[in-house]
Fold this protein.
Amino acid sequence: MELRINRRALTALAVAGALSVSSLALLRPDTGTASSHREAPMIAGDPRNDNTDVYAFVSPDKPDTVTLMANWIPFEEPVGGPNFYTFDTRSRYNIKIDNDGNAKPDVVYQWTFRDQDKRGTSTFLYNNGPVTSLGDENLLFRQRYTLKKYDEKNGWTTLVKNGVVAPSNVGAASMPDYATLRAQSLEKLPRGGQAFAGQADEAFFLDLRVFDLLYGGDLSQVGQDTTKGYNVHSLAVQVPKADLALKSDPGRNPVVGVWATTDKWSPSGYRQVSRLGNPLVNEVVVPAALKDTFNSLSPDKDAGIPAVVKRVTNPELPRLLEGIYKIPAPKTPRADLVEIFLTGIAKANGPIKADLNSQILNKDVDAKSFRPSEMLRLNMAIPPAASPDRLGVLGGDPQGFPNGRRLTDDVVDISLQAVAGAAQTGKLVQALAAGDKVDANDKPFQTRFPYIPLPSAAAVNQN
């Protein structure tokens, strides 16, 4: 019975072809309601609400826990004073978890922020002397936060009432030991968890010249880490697996779906203006006219909108690879990409013959309520790899992307391989084997939570 139900869901996705008038009307952008990565047309004016990356992985040093992380504010220039970067006090920042496969959040971690500004009319400075602790009186501006959790059993509960955001890294004279400030910003959560909010290194490594006709039209524009030296603002929790699993039982129900959103206050109330699950979906899957509205949708709406589904079953990027580099585009409809982006990977779901990270693998999931949707899916039962492969599942490492996402996963190279058909054959597409030649972050990742490197204090432009 379960197999038949899921096949019907996939069939419905595959045949959702031409755009209907009603679906186009539903997808018409609503001004003021959308932003996501910098690629979305409306994001330029609202970077504080721009969610740049989502990560979900079994904690390598605490494998009984999972680390969830989301970053905001792209391309923070480290020396961008005197007003450094902050979270938006009018917004709610969320990391959401679906554990039963109905594409609706079963667990939510939500941060809200408030400013503590002591500068007044006396100074323009962020700090008026060396800052050696988060409580140092020389730190004239700081943000505090409240972290709440929602789950279906307990409703909303407050985990952190008065957390302090790790500040922007002004420089060695102002913050001679920034690592201490990071350590002091970590908050303990009930049941042995931890939380973090603060500035961090931009850990997404890639060569963004991919948008210049796919690396210059001849793969000559590769090897330059475009995000090197920039910072972001990061939110993270490390929690026991049982806090996320369906019925609090990660043994029976190890798979969860994860995405992040930003809700911004408007006169009509809070409205979702940013959404992110899998990396690069809005960049290279969703077309320009649909990007803003995609960011305002909840995942349970995805499968019902042919305009969105068509971009998965009949994607643009393989056709571009064929036209520019003569790499044959796989036949459509792309049921393999439906698994990767919309259902999770399971033998019952499509052509990828592996049980990896679909919520239908959870023993207590009701197959009748399962709904294809775009989110980052993680199988918490797969232990951390002793030597993580940057290509994740395609590199023979099942603990990597698209099974969740680790900081070390080279999601650009993985995604290019996937859209070119590597998931269908189980072999790398050799014409793209070198990828963008940016294989690791410029800074090493830390061995303990929150793992993301400390923010840079040096100017990006060193010329």
